Amino acid sequence: MIAYAARRAGLGAIQVAAVAALAFALVELLPGDAAVALAGDRPDPAVIERIRERMSLDEPAPARLADWIGGLATGDLGTSLVSGRPVSAIIADALQPTLILAGVTLVLLLPMSIGLGVAAARRRGRWPDRLITTTSVGLYAVPEFALAVLLVSVFAIGLDWLPPTAVGAGSLLDEPLVLVLPVLVLLARPICSIARLVRAGMIEALDAEYTAHARRAGVPERTVVWAHALPNALAPAAAQIARTADWLLGGVIVVESVFVVPGLGTALVDAVNARDLPVVQGIAVVFGVTTVLVNLAADLVAFRLAPRLEVAS
Amino acid sequence: MHLTAITRRGALGLAGAALLAGCGGTGAEPKHGGTLRAAFAGGGAAETLDPHRVNLFADAARAKAMYDKLADLGGDMAAVPRLAESWEGNADLTVWTVRLREAVFHDGAPLTAADVLYSYRRITDPEETFRAGQDLAPIDLDASRAVDDRTVEFVLRHPLAEFPASLAAFGAYIVPEGADDFTAPVGTGPFTFAAFEPGRSFAADRFADHWDGPALLDRLEIVVADEESARVNALLGGQVDYAHDLSATTARANEGDDAITLLSSPGSNMLGFAMKTDRAPFDDPRVRQAMFLLCDREALLESVLSGRGLVGNDLFGLGFEHYADAIPQRERDVEAAKALLAEAGVPGLSVVLDTAEVGAGLPEAARIFAEQLREGGVQVELNVRNADTYWSEILTEGQIASYRSGAMPIASHLSQRLLTDSPTNLTAWRDADFDDRYLLLQSTADETDRQALYDELQQRLHDEGGYLVWGFADWIVGTAAHVRGVEPAPANTLDWARFDKVWTE
Amino acid sequence: MKRRIETAVIVTLLAVPLALALLGPLVPFAGGERARPFDPEAPWPGTDHLGASVLDGVLDGGRGIVLTAVAATALAYAAGFPVGLAAASTRRRWLDELLMRPFDLLLALPSLLLVLILASIAPPTAWTLVLVTASVNLPDIARITRAAALDAAHRPAVEAMWLQGEHPWRIATVHTARSILPTVAADAGVRLVGACYLVAAASFFGVAGPEANDWAVMVDANRGGIFLSPWGVVLPAALLVALSVGLNLLFDRLLSRRDTP
Description:
Oligomer: heterotrimer
CATH architecture of the largest domain in chain B: Roll
Distance between the termini of chain B: 45 Å
Shape of chain C: elongated
Number of domains of chain C: 2
CATH superfamily of the largest domain in chain B: Dipeptide-binding Protein, Domain 3
Number of domains of chain B: 3
Number of helices of chain B: 15
CATH superfamily of the largest domain in chain C: MetI-like
CATH architecture of the largest domain in chain C: Orthogonal Bundle
Radius of gyration of chain C: 22 Å
Number of helices of chain C: 10
Number of strands of chain C: 0
Number of strands of chain B: 19
Largest interface: A-C, 69 and 57 residues
Radius of gyration of chain B: 23 Å
CATH class of the largest domain in chain C: Mainly Alpha
Distance between the termini of chain C: 19 Å
CATH class of the largest domain in chain B: Alpha Beta
Strand content of chain C: under 5%
Order of helices and strands of chain C: HHHHHHHHHH
Largest sheet of chain C: none
């Protein structure tokens, strides 16, 4: 298992490098550059040319990529083309609100979605199952912005129970109330997708021979469900949970913009719009590292839950 | 019939704004103290405190709180003295003497002519890319000098009758001599710097020694909320006291709400389409005229702006100083347009209409205008471009493109967009005679003669120019009910985002 | 009896949106002239963000979203399912790695970044939307298929088939594919719904074509006027939810019938 983890870690490093190169290539493919974006609605060609020189955009792309990789090797993510601030500082600022949002959401998400999935599977075909599956599918089809509009107009504007946005909040942790609505919106879809996978996996596991065997051997039903069936049911869901963590870290741009949370998703959109390549790449590296780690963790968990899978090879 | 109703409402709108402005000044007795929190759209990490580098509304609002310009623009785009006490041009309008007000910077140093010259040199530095650089380019700063501590003599490269408007250019703020680091800005403005986090928040405190009298508020906070719905929600939820740049839909939805006040400034935001006059099919004036005639302005105003605006007459600057309002309103005439197209030899004209999400209502207007053109037998393909690079692309590419413009003096519109060497000559309008008449206008000291030249140039643009101007959107801001003293004003004018005369009940 | 009620519910939920999607575009013109946007006084169901009748959008906007969602999901499955199945069924480690690692790469690239940039590079058309939606789903599908198939492919029954000399591809296609069908079908149902959602989200990012007006786009475009005239959001959203719930109930029903003959 340690050898497996080490091999995956090495692979992860290659993945991160590839993601950074891919991000560079994709942003290069975008029309225009940082100078054009900065000039905005006053596109004086002479001014654009001067901005280009100031940003060293007149150097060829491979040279700029090499520069950036050289910096990365020494732990330097470079400086923003537009603001001149270090990319690491920009990321550090944006990371905190996103981590808080994603963390709170994940902490609530896992017990809730697994609980719902197991509950639905155990009452398969009966009304609790129907209620959970139907509601979750219906909810899954509603885009975040629509759900956010609804929740804000009811709970913040109509009933005046909760703040409608996080505007001007120093730290999200200082004012926990502003977290309620964004977290609800963030939870809605992942709960649905994970609960469904857990339910499907659970149904399969509860029908499997080994659970039947355990029951015949007189193991209490509670133990059968939670200790025997659930671990096997979770294996396929683990990948989806990892994917959710990635999606959350992406900050769900919609939630950040509707609730005015200045997180990583907002920073990424701003940087892409401004063609601020060093910032885009810096954020891509952060995303890449996180995704690799989370997927690695998910695979290891799946491996622990159902060791037969890897042993077989 | 329909038209007269709209134009009458337009006129009423203007009068209404004037009325509201009057109320703001003379209503209840102003109160001192308190904090006001205002929400603007921002630009994330790209936001800056360097007053010369301003680019966004949020940047401009912050710069205005901490700095002053020599002049600013009134609601009709006429220059209003600020740090300048007075100005006077010589006979041929090439040398202007500006007398400075007695003012002090936040650190106690007095404002001097040297500060003004330093600021203008920094703005026009050829290595730099400041927005106001273009407006101040006519000044020969090597020849200009400080006559004494409070008098500056500006020597111009060519006559400029409208020079005072240059002093009010976007971002032409006066900084202390030598200032180059703006992490803790020092200006002469009504508020002193307290805190700044790019893309999030800004705070500033009252400056007791401001030359125009200290602000009424103790503290001003500017927070960033990019989404219009978020600004409205924050205002409705009491999280902010002022929300900038709201939509007509929002205004309609909250009309009867006592908790917030909506202030509209009519005629602030020009909306239209820019045709390239140097290439087919719009190099033929008859084809441009056909476009003018196919446009149903009232329908656009109604569908795109919910009627919250004024109908345009293919001219920039409705309601501004020097606007040619004697020119009759152009109306839709599909048959005349078809005849013009047939005469031009393109009865089955086919065009590509460029648009992008670069302003509220632009793609929507393009979509409806395309339908209107199709009613005239024109084939239209809509081409949605990337919003970040749109302006730069349509400067050289395409045939006809969605266009908008904020408020600025009509002379600036002419010089920046309609002269042969204009840097953003979007309609490729290059006409030596037009250039000469513009130069003559800027060399004419007599007001009446100059107005005659303004009228002449605008008549030409109305007849065969490349800008189809279908309307002007209201500029709408919202305030909480307890906020007083906010004046409706077009963006980037003196009373826009001005918080030193604002107070809270 | 219970089953009959359920059937009626499924039929109703599916019939309304599908009938609108199929027949709606054939209804010539319902709304009349453009009026003021979000006009609360206009005849029900009011006007949209451009002053056209919401009814027009409801009638015209079904076909696009159904086609886009189905095409994107089908495309993603056509590419992802065989790869995941092959990776799980093979006994050669290097083949598994070769098949799955490229997806890991795609997975490590944040989906948000992918949508955002692809949307900016490619011209906004229906096909862009299908491709973006499919490429976001592809790695997930491959991974989930592989995870589910790994489990099935190493059951004692399969091991026995191996020992009997059954052809590996026959085992994979017949036995494994069949046994992972419940998990995959649950996933496919949700993914079809997810595709509807992605089309709406893409519209939020500006990927929708210039004159697109499908139900998902309507939800985004009309949300600004929800306090003036809610139907522009409520009707298309309700149709999308009905379609999604109906489809999933149908999937579940078909599966349970297959399991219990």
